[in-house]
Automatic annotation (TrEMBL), chain A:
Single GO BP term: chemotaxis
Keywords for this protein: ATP-binding, Chemotaxis, Coiled coil, Kinase, Nucleotide-binding, Phosphoprotein, Transferase, Two-component regulatory system
E.C. number(s) listed in UniProt: 2.7.13.3
Source organism of the structure: Liquorilactobacillus satsumensis DSM 16230 = JCM 12392
Superkingdom classification of source: Bacteria
Taxonomic path: Bacteria, Bacillati, Bacillota, Bacilli, Lactobacillales
Record-linked InterPro entries: Bact_Chemotaxis_CheA, CheA-like_dim, CheA-like_homodim_sf, CheA-like_P2_sf, CheA_P2-bd, CheW-like_dom_sf, CheW-lke_dom, CheY-binding_CheA
Name of the molecule in the record: Chemotaxis protein CheA
Alphabetical list of Pfam families matching this protein: CheW, H-kinase_dim, HATPase_c, Hpt, P2
Residues modified as Phosphohistidine: H47
UniProtKB/TrEMBL annotation, chain B:
Protein's name according to its UniProt entry: Chemotaxis protein CheY
Residues found modified as 4-aspartylphosphate: D54
PROSITE patterns: RESPONSE_REGULATORY
Limits of the Response regulatory domain: 4-119
GO BP annotations, alphabetical order: phosphorelay signal transduction system
Lineage of the species this protein comes from: Bacteria, Bacillati, Bacillota, Bacilli, Lactobacillales
Xref: InterPro entries: CheY-like_superfamily (IPR011006), Sig_transdc_resp-reg_receiver (IPR001789), ST_Response_Regulator (IPR052048)
Top-level taxon in the UniProt lineage: Bacteria
Record organism: Liquorilactobacillus satsumensis DSM 16230 = JCM 12392
Keyword Phosphoprotein among record annotations: yes
SUPFAM superfamilies named among the record's database cross-references: CheY-like (SSF52172)
PANTHER family recorded: TWO-COMPONENT RESPONSE REGULATOR, TWO-COMPONENT RESPONSE REGULATOR ARR22
Keywords: Phosphoprotein
């Protein structure tokens, strides 16, 4: 038994590629329905996908791809004209396929029910082309009768030919062949057998007819009359040279046998035939299905988490990696050598090289983790197309800077919030074509998605030329939901869109407005260490700007002391650091402490109190002014250590629940310092005041 | 040493799968090619005892590659790899001189039987 599980990862990776390619190409096909090259390419992808699924023994997936492929075949042969209904159906299939693949990743068992609806739809299309009902190719092998070479439908003319040939030194043989029960592509199989025979003579008669045989329209047995100068053994050898034969018999043609009552000839088994049970199972079933097997209780899954994350790396980067590592080995040896000789000078030299190499390595590893945002973006044109169709709007997605790179973790988490924003733009932003026309805008709306790097951050903007946000509408909507808007500026009103549970949609559509608002997007971006801004102008459009850190695992941090403990504060939230005197600079209001910063009173967070650390007696403190969620907070710490690049280590799940720390890092002396999660701390402060 | 086989398929997955089947059954994989042109080039370079040739591949497909190989070496033994629904292509390949064909999904036993036969 061969174990397919080894190939799972590869299978998933290649399947994802093919699905993406199919999505892209099918989308293109819609705008260029006559592009045959495209159809061919699509066909090939679908075909490969099917082959892969079948080899893995994923029957359900195979079935769906097979039916889908048929459709492409109709496009190819011109039997079916590409139209957007078909394209939508294909998209549905592609979506279902990626769902199936996801299920397989999670080691769920697939059932035919998952695809029944689509199969029915596809079959409808198919039968509209072929004019007949396509029935599932049931290959239930009937109870097999013994094989006999007796020809039942021989005609007078055939006998004539045989007689004449005999006079010229030809032998006539009566041959019956039985194919393996599970033989696939029976037509070509017969064709191949005939081709081999005809190299040595002539096949003058077959039962059933050649046409039926070559179409594969028979069970497993067929008969033929073969004229050749070869002797019986040679003929047998010729036939034996074919694969997938269950049995055959060949004998000199004897006229009298073929009339009336048949004298049964012996069944001669084809030589190498390890499996003798007559009703061999269909091939697909004989395939091992390591994944679909129900797991035994208590048995660990074969694949941890079923999702071994993998990433494709540019080979040149890996080569450089290897070079650097080998260089490192050289200097390690030098160090070894120098330390033996106690040469401080040499140790220093080598150490310098080692530190240069480690920083190069660090940089490179980060680069290896980088992934182009196109990984996420490529799905969107298709999505916008579907959205436009569903909403009856006209719109176009323009993508820029898709080659921009981000840490893989960020990239893979990005799709959800982006989809949310895109849906939002399509649903609430872009107006109906007629409305647009009245306003003097082009009927077709444009949504522009761009990504670009800016210093240590990557910005992703999503801009639509739709109706923008109307502060007045926002106000009414907010009030109707019981949100207090008194004294809010237009800007604040507009930003109510990020208020939990706020939705401007008049009715809930299945596109956006599923109850989760943009606050969810905001939260997600925040989790990724990024920020979300919005600019909107009434009737001109709305623009969302997502700012993300290039990488998650190494950040610039401000190292501080709270009491006697060392903590790290991510530098990107730090606006400014000021030295304050506890008594003079902090103002106590009725319920809280505030600090005057740029003419604004901002809340003060006493970290020592919050983290329950004994504070130093000194009243001299540092206030780190941080910006979180559009508002400033002053975070008090006892001492500043300095700026440092730190590697983020994830905290144990139990510690993560504290929601005060982003992670931990190891500092120079080997001690562990916790990294403060400023966003959650500020959030916590706000909530505690409510 | 086992017989040398050149595996031609555009999907890495399929190549690995086939390679695994072959190597577990005493065959030696001479080389792998991922399209028809590469197949023709690698055939000439490695002179394998047998070629397994996928039919659908981008650019130069399996049938063209078969013809190319046959033109270089009339005695070349090429086994086509096909999926269901490719009757016509398979027949065309047989006409062009393919010695046999195997059908995906690959069944180890069938594949080995076919290759053994093709080489006997």
């Amino acid at each position: 038994m061969d174990d397919n599980s080894v190939y799972r990862d590869l299978f998933f990776e290649e399947s994802d590629d093919h699905l993406q390619q199919l999505n892209d190409n099918v989308l293109e096909l819609e705008s260029e329905p006559d592009n045959m090259d495209l159809v061919n390419e699509i066909f090939r992808s679908a075909h490969t996908l099917k082959g892969m699924a079948a080899t893995m023994g994923y029957d359900v997936m195979t079935k769906l791809t097979h039916k889908m492929e048929n459709m492409f075949d109709f496009f190819k042969s011109g039997k079916l004209k590409v139209n957007s209904d078909y394209i939508s159906l294909i998209f549905k299939c592609l979506d279902r396929l990626s769902q199936l693949i996801e299920d397989l990743r999670d080691e769920k068992e697939l059932s035919n029910q998952q695809i029944e609806d689509l199969l029915a739809e596809l079959e409808k299309v198919e039968s509209s082309v072929t004019g007949k009902k396509t029935t599932a190719a049931s290959q239930t092998s009937t109870a097999q009768s013994p094989l006999t070479s007796v020809q039942e439908q021989l005609e007078e003319a055939d006998l004539d030919v045989i007689q004449k040939a005999a006079a010229e030194g030809y032998h006539a043989y009566s041959i019956a062949i039985r194919l393996d029960a599970g033989t696939l592509l029976k037509g070509p199989r017969v064709f191949l057998i005939m081709e081999k025979l005809e190299q040595e003579g002539d096949v003058i008669h077959t039962e059933p007819s050649v046409d039926l045989l070559e179409n594969g329209d028979f069970e497993t047995d067929f008969k033929l009359v073969f004229l050749t100068k070869d002797n019986l053994d040679e003929v047998k050898q010729n036939i034996e040279g074919n694969s997938e034969l269950a049995a055959f018999c060949a004998e000199e043609f004897a006229e009298q046998k073929h009339y009336g009552a048949a004298v049964k000839s012996q069944l001669q088994a084809a030589k190498p035939q390890p499996q003798t049970q007559p009703a061999a199972k269909p091939v697909a079933k004989a395939q091992p299905k390591p994944v679909q097997k129900p797991r035994k209780k208590g048995e660990k899954p074969a694949h941890n988490n079923a999702r071994n994350q993998s990433i494709r790396v540019d080979l040149t980067r890996l080569d450089r990696f290897l070079n650097l590592v080998s260089e490192l080995v050289v200097y390690r040896n030098q160090l070894d050598d120098a330390s033996k000789r106690n040469s401080e000078e040499e140790v220093k030299d080598s150490l310098e090289q080692v530190s240069r190499l480690t920083s190069e390595l660090q940089e490179l590893v980060l680069k290896i983790r980088m992934q182009q945002v196109s990984v996420v973006f490529t799905r969107f044109p298709r999505m916008v197309r579907d959205l436009a169709r569903d909403l009856g709007k006209e719109m176009e997605l323009v993508i820029e800077g898709e080659e921009t790179e981000l840490d893989k973790t960020v990239v893979s988490e990005l799709s959800e919030p982006l989809i949310h924003l895109l849906r939002n733009s399509a649903d609430h932003g872009i107006e109906q074509p007629d409305v647009r026309e009245q306003m003097g805008k082009p009927r077709k709306g444009t949504i522009k998605l761009s990504a670009y790097q800016e210093g240590n951050r990557v910005n992703i903007t999503l801009e639509d030329d739709g109706k923008g946000l109307d502060p007045q509408v926002m106000k009414e909507s907010a009030e109707s939901k019981g949100i207090d808007t008194t004294g809010m500026s237009d800007d604040e009103l507009i930003h109510l869109i990020f208020h939990p549970g706020f939705s401007t949609a008049k009715k809930v559509t299945n596109i956006s407005g599923r109850g989760v608002g943009l606050d969810a997007v905001m939260a997600k971006i925040g989790e990724l260490g990024g920020s979300l801004e919005m600019k909107t102008e009434l009737h001109v459009g709305t623009k969302f700007i997502i700012k993300l850190p290039l990488t998650l695992s190494i950040i610039q941090a401000l190292m501080v002391k709270i009491g006697a403990e060392v903590f790290a504060v991510p530098l990107d939230v730090v606006e400014r650091v000021v030295m304050i005197n506890d008594e003079k600079d902090l103002i106590k209001t009725s319920d809280q402490e505030v600090y005057r910063f740029q003419e604004e009173l901002i809340p003060v967070i006493r970290t020592a109190h919050l983290l329950q650390i004994p504070d130093t007696a000194s009243t001299k403190k540092f206030a780190i002014i941080v910006k979180s969620d559009h508002s400033y907070h002053a975070v008090l710490v006892s001492e500043l250590i300095g700026q440092q690049e730190i590697v983020i280590k994830k905290l144990d799940a139990a510690l993560q629940k504290l929601q005060k720390y982003q992670g931990a890092t190891i500092i120079g002396n080997g001690a562990v310092a916790l990294i403060l999660d400023i966003n959650s701390i500020c959030q916590g402060k706000k909530e505690s005041q409510k | 040493m086992g017989k040398k086989v050149l595996i031609v398929d555009d999907a890495v997955f399929m190549r690995m799968k086939l390679k695994d089947i072959l190597e577990k059954n005493g065959y030696e994989v001479a080389d792998e090619a991922q399209n028809g042109q590469e197949a023709i080039d690698k055939y000439q370079a490695t002179k394998p005892d047998l070629v397994t040739m996928d039919i659908t591949m981008p650019d130069v497909d399996g049938i063209e590659a078969l013809k190319g190989i046959k033109a270089f070496d009339g005695g070349a033994k090429v086994v086509m790899c096909s999926a269901m629904g490719q009757q016509e292509m398979v027949m065309e390949a047989i006409k062009a001189g393919a010695v046999d064909f195997i059908v995906k999904p690959f069944d180890t036993e069938r594949v080995i039987k076919a290759l053994d036969k093709a080489l006997s």
